[in-house]
User: What shape does this take?
Amino acid sequence: MDPEPRIVDTLARPLGDLRISVMDRCNFRCPYCMPSERYPEGYQFLSRREQLTFDEIERIARLLVSRGVRKLRLTGGEPLLRPGLADLVRRLRAIDGVEDLAMTTNGMLLDRHAQALREAGLDRVTVSVDSFDAETFALMSGGRGSLATVLANIQLAREAGFEPIKVNTVLQRGLNDDGALDILEHFRGTGVIVRFIEYMDVGSINDWRREQVVTSAELIKRIEQRWPLRPLSPNYHGEVANRYAYADGQGEVGFVSSVSQPFCRACNRARLSSDGCLYTCLFATRGTDLKGPLRAGRSDAELAALIDSVWRRRADRYSELRGQARPEKRKIEMYYIGG
Assistant: This one.
């Protein structure tokens, strides 16, 4: 399908980035995402039949690329739990117009898959690491993660050819924020880029409170007391992280400030859940079913028209409006549509 002019939403934001959740299951039970008391052993996640097949994911991705998407990111749950993921990467890599293909993972299974994913065409890997204290890390993974394993697997991913690797860290005041500089110290000078993400009220089960947020401005002040920073220009329009370089040349660090400095006006992201719903905001309360029309035999033109209508009606700016009104419905959980 030939590329069409890029569509824009009601705030003139173009469609440019698609996050594809390939799996709603996860091997962690992080309290802020999938707490074990809500998702115990035996919890019924999506069945194989309910999930999009690789053929269906590829078809939807091709349609979205034809509407303007240039960046694809595989998410979960934990994407490495999806069997045969390298095959999907190979298919997505072959789509004309895809400029960047990345994955976000908790890193526990990277040693089994990194080489195959790299050879299949995956460009980049982002690994979530919320603490460098082994006990805190275990607490924040629901007792299912090993910091030593994740760190070893980051190194294996580097050896497989992934550069740069990014590490995402979500800080919660009083829980893991005292270890922020330990994470930076470990990765300074290695080429791994740490990005601190303000704790957000994603979904409806993480008991978020604003006082738990460590703002990027506060964190930058802490860091500069030890390592002076200088701001960097964005890599591309719509980049969500504000980038800073260490003044001594030992790499860079990023800050995603959705709470204190909302970037809704530049957001160009859509999200595809593993059961085929298209969401236009991380804080959405509902999505648009694409799996149903697809399995009912709708043509590419009909599906493209549906995607166009969804994006052109998009007016999401939750982070800018946060706290101004009580949410009417429960928000979609993060594990369902990716972070």
In short: The chain has a mean pLDDT of 92. The first helix runs from residue 54 to 66. The two ends are 30 Å apart (CA to CA).
